[in-house]
Amino acid sequence: MIQINLREKLSHNSKWFIFPLLLLLLACPSEDEPPDPEPDPGPLIASGFINLASGFYEDALDNFDDALSLSRTNISANMGKAWSMLFLDNGVDGSSLDSMRFFFEKGIGDSIWSADAYCGLAMVALAQNNYSLSVNHADSLLSINSLYVFEYVVGGNTYYINDIDYHDILLVKAQAQFFTPDYQGAYDTLS
Description:
Layout: H1 2-27, H2 42-54, H3 57-70, H4 75-89, H5 94-105, H6 114-127, H7 131-144, E1 149-154, E2 157-165, H8 166-179, H9 183-190
Antiparallel strand pairs: 1-2
């Protein structure tokens, strides 16, 4: 009788051991199929900058939005979106200035995009009447590259975007200095 009870208890309790084991086996991932590769936003970004250089700002914005839908953290796509927004409305809409600033700030810490980020931020800060910040951003840009030119290279071709260069930043800086009012600083910058 003791033997029957022991068998009965083992067979009754074995259900509780099999169930977790079965769950463990079913939960393990199979290695049959590799995961799908992430889509590459590169071609969309390249098209966006070509459109930006050609003056097709809405098309450029669409390209950058599509690229950001593939990779939200792509700095090139974020920067392209900020520039597209800037060229589309030139900061007429105050709320769009905050969005532009948000996208430009993503490029500050990037060695490739930092000069372009400071260029855009200097313009946005001027449009937001934050003159001292505009001067600071202009100075940051000029300390990175005193002969700055806004360009983008795609497939060995260099595209110059809206002919923006260090002269434009000096004008932005001088305007901001004038409004602070640092008239001597504005005069020196223009000189």
